[in-house]
Amino acid sequence: MNWKKGLVTIPLAATIAIPSLGLNVYAEDHMPTPSVDTEAVELRSSLDHLLSEHVYLAVETMRKGAEGASDFDQAAGALSQNTDDLSKAIGSVYGEEAGKQFNDMWSEHIGYFVDYVKATDAGDEEAKQEALDNLGEYKEEFSQFLEDATGERLEAGALAEGLQMHVNQLIGAFDAFVAGDYEAAYEYEREAMSHMYMVSKGLSDAMSNQFPEKFNDTSAVTPAADLRSDLSYLLSEHAGLAVTAMQNGIDGSEDFEASAEALSNNTEELSDTIGSVYGEEAGEQFQQMWSDHIGNFVSYVEATGAEDEAAKEKALSALEDYRADFSSFIETATEGKVSADVMSEGLQTHVNQLIGAFDSYTMEDYDKAYSDIRDAYAHMFNPGKALSGAISAQFPEKFSQEMPSEMPETGLSPQDTGMNSTMWLAVAGMFALITALTLHFRKQNQQ
């Protein structure tokens, strides 16, 4: 489609704590409700948010750099703000000096990715290799930093393997994009985002294990915490991919079809998840409504390109109808544990953020656009928390059990578990290649 280019506007939201939706989630009196909002789980969710957002913004910034896009500086600025937020999160646990050291090292590794983009644009193979060599050195230094900071709860050698996976995924996504293999580019991107949830799982486990008094002796790794993390992954990824697809649509980008396909794959996985909990019919109903709301956003993009104000209003009206129907669906499915009114309010925020980000982009107000994009990405961790709380309350027998004492938290801690760190990273890599969320729910349903 040859849609005309437009603009986007957005206010930045870079908070480390994810606010609660204020939902009252409860279980039957005879069984305690598994908690999805303990201090350690909140730490894990914050790291889920910021580490996965790092991948999303890094991929977008590298692509913008390759294209010479007019919003490259704003994309890079959003990535820098994400780094600041991550550094504050580390500093809040390990102190200001450690936070600054983290910021310096993390910023340095982003700089090497930028060097790789510049070298690719210049066709300079030697400079590309130099960037990769620098990333290799960073990998070793940063792994040692984390081993020292966590009191050897994370092992440097195994961490280096995980960081190499991160480098390979981002470089792979960029190289595939430059080569015009857009399907592979988006596959790499999705794998890279998924992988970071395994990283945040390990980091939050190590931190809460190291400073139990800071996290009220709670665990970052429980069945309910895994559920919250899994849902947050797909919901936040939906927001990120929707933004990308809408920008690609108005720009008439060559990778539009691939970005739309990635968004469709995300929808299928979300639908499979709902179906695995509430049944096949509910999963199909969810997929139909979720796909329809994505279609309404597409209609808005098309109407913007055609400068058809009436069609834009029609798309917004359709989104309003979807909001009412979907909110009622969620209230019914969760047996009232998530109210339709609360869900409807959250959905309106979601719509406002995506439309706001897109409108700002088409108007070339890129500062506002990337502020809204960050808001939209962060916001989806709210329904992730709300839905996981409701589901774990409905099925407490599936989510109340704690992890076995011989394998606490994660497999990243060699002294605490029989699973060594290298083994854990191999599992992380496997989960990065498949949908961890769907497998999680299927496993729960088989119990």
Describe this structure in words.
This protein has 447 residues and is an all-alpha fold. Helix content is 76%, strand content 0%. The chain has helices at residues 39-67, 72-94, 96-122, 125-149, 156-178, 182-210, 223-251, 256-278, 280-305, 309-333, 340-362, 366-379, 381-394, 396-399, 421-433, 436-446. The longest helix is centred in the first third of the chain and has 29 residues, at 39-67. It is globular. The N and C termini lie far apart (48 Å). Residues 1-29 and 403-447 have low confidence and may be disordered.
Mean pLDDT: 85
Uncertain stretches of 5 or more adjacent residues: 1-29, 403-447
Query: How many distinct helices?
Result: 16
> Can you tell me the overall shape?
globular
The succession of helices and strands, N to C, reads: HHHHHHHHHHHHHHHH
Structural class: mainly alpha
Instruction: Please tell me how large the radius of gyration is.
Output: 21 Å
The CA-CA distance between the termini, in Å, is 48 Å
How do the strands and helices of this protein lay out in sequence?
Layout: H1 39-67, H2 72-94, H3 96-122, H4 125-149, H5 156-178, H6 182-210, H7 223-251, H8 256-278, H9 280-305, H10 309-333, H11 340-362, H12 366-379, H13 381-394, H14 396-399, H15 421-433, H16 436-446
Helix pairs in contact: 1-2, 1-3, 1-5, 1-6, 1-7, 2-3, 3-4, 4-5, 5-6, 5-15, 6-7, 6-8, 6-15, 7-8, 7-9, 7-11, 7-12, 7-13, 7-16, 8-9, 8-16, 9-10, 10-11, 11-12
Protein name: LPXTG-motif cell wall anchor domain-containing protein
Signal peptide: 1-27
Keywords: Membrane, Signal, Transmembrane, Transmembrane helix
